[in-house]
Amino acid sequence: MLSLNCEQVGNVRKNLFLAYKTLGVVFGGLVTSPLYVYPSMNLSSPTEGDYLGIYSIMFWTLTLIGVVKYVGIALNADDHGEGGTFAMYSLLCRHADIGILPSKRVYSVEEPLLHDQSTIARRPSKLGKFFERSITARRVLLFMAILGMCMLIGDGILTPAISVLSAIDGLRGPFPSVSRPVVEALSAAILIGLFLLQKYGTSKVSFLFSPIMAAWTFTTPIIGIYSIVRYYPGIFKAISPHYIVLFFLRNKRQGWQLLGGTVLCITGAEAMFADLGHFSKKAIQIAFLSSIYPSLVLTYAGQTAYLINNANDFGDGFYKFVPRPVYWPMFVIATLAAIVASQSLISATFSVIKQSVVLDYFPRVKVVHTSQQKEGEVYSPEVNYILMVLCVGVILGFGGGKEIGNAFGVVVIMVMLITTIMLTLVMIIIWRTPLYLVGMYAVPFVIIEGSYISAVFTKILEGGWLPFAVSMILALIMFVWYYGRQRKTEYEMVNKVTLERLGELLAMPEVQRVPGLCFFYSNIQDGLTPILGHYIKNMSSLHTVTIFVTLRYLLVSKVDERERILVKRLGPDGVYQCTIQYGYADNLSLKGGDDLVAQVTRCLQRHIETSTDRQSPISTEEEVGNLKAARLAGVVHVRGKMRFYVGDDAGCFDKVMLLLYEFLHGICRSALPALGMPLQQRVEIGMLYKV
Questions:
Q1: Smallest Cα–Cα separation from 62: which of 342, 339, 272, 234?
Q2: In 3D, which of 261, 266, 253 has the Cα closest to residue 404?
Q3: Residues 647, 408: Cα–Cα separation, whole Å
């Protein structure tokens, strides 16, 4: 009993410590939203009733979306600890055959990694069967997952811009002579410095993130309480929903349009779910319910209490309500908190891009792991500099926080509606929740988030076009990449080389077995790539030991180390198959090509020595000796590079999609450097596929 109590105490301490750390990583965007919510609203001669209605809307938005939806429901829809729209998509794919790419289909029943799924969970529901039968429904589901990821990247562009700009804008209060261009230039300089530091990782400074955000989280509600007591002690009567009804009856169309500003109070809530893989569910729930939620409720109450007595100060709704004696300390804390919030979204963007690359839904970009201890801490140079240009462009192009806020609202609520829809599918297909309970969740949240979307859509021409443009470009890139990969996979499956055909090729008198160890990379597991036949016919040779390697990306977050490398013997002597398995949250980079060779040959030798089903005519000792001799003779890594030749007789859709795919394929990185292959050992074999 004593040991059990000690273990429980230890778990509580661990969760409390993790909850403290989430302040600096997960909640940066959400808890800094008071900097720009009121300044983003286009108010016109607001009254006391207007402010009470606005506060009531914000209170219930935080309560329903933050507490009920995310903390109470969404955090339970994790995929082996990972969260976000892609995690929900992979979760759905694992419980029903609704994946798109054949090479990305889930190996559900026989998959050893998924042995813990119940028999009931494997049998698809009626809705799951509908998705399995309808390719259109599966494409729409994939598009939603893609759009959710694209919108999160849009969040990564806008959060740094609006947070830092709103914080630095505090200089204009004490120093009215400081012009708007100066504030913009300072904000841009801070962000450029932040992006240039990304390549060094955040490990060295991340220990400062949580104290900074804790200082912000616990000081703003103190000022809020002071403001409530001084300006409007009865502010909490606005919790009554009837103030929302009165607000809309009084303001009608303008009140509906103001929803586009109030929605910003929940910015960053999606990070609770998206960053689930870095922390535990319990830690995120503790942090939100014990600190973030009370902090925001009290801070917005204090701001509203001040504005009721100073109705026209909403343009600088945060700094105006800060008492003069603590103005400069709060300015420093606000600036540091805005930088930390920016870092949180930048890191989340890197993480999402990495997951998409691993799942092969995005062109390959360089992904660098900047920490040996933290596997999720990654950096992508190409993504980093594109983000930097876009963030600085947003600040210099839009200028004011109100204009950026117009763009920001579109991103925030679109991601939340996508989460609501996918969470509803998870409830029906996986959890088998009774339909009346699903309706009690889905209907209210679709109405609430649909109302917000209808309001923010009116701001498309006032800045909302930017995240849509970025998201649509990203979605186009992802869909073109998906379509090209699908066509390539279909061709490989139809024209794959069977073991019988391989035996015939090797039996040809002109084909020689040359000394050495060859790693031949293929995209398919069932059969051998058609490039192999092309290679043997043109080279008239094959190495004495040839290992066909497939990188198998599973729709799970992480693969157990014991299941990472799977090997088996194929028919002809010296020919083997190796499958290297990864989840979307795994580290793709092995430590150097020699390390890959050592790991695979070690697994292969163990397989040869322990195999009971021997098909080789030679002894175990001789087979192991051949493997060692081949490695000493030299190692070569062969990768096929199949390109599309789009003929004049191809359809218009194919011409456009495949030419775009060829362009993307030409500029993206090779898959081999990600595994650390030495340049002098790499060989690429080209092959044209006529469409």
A1: 272
A2: 261
A3: 44
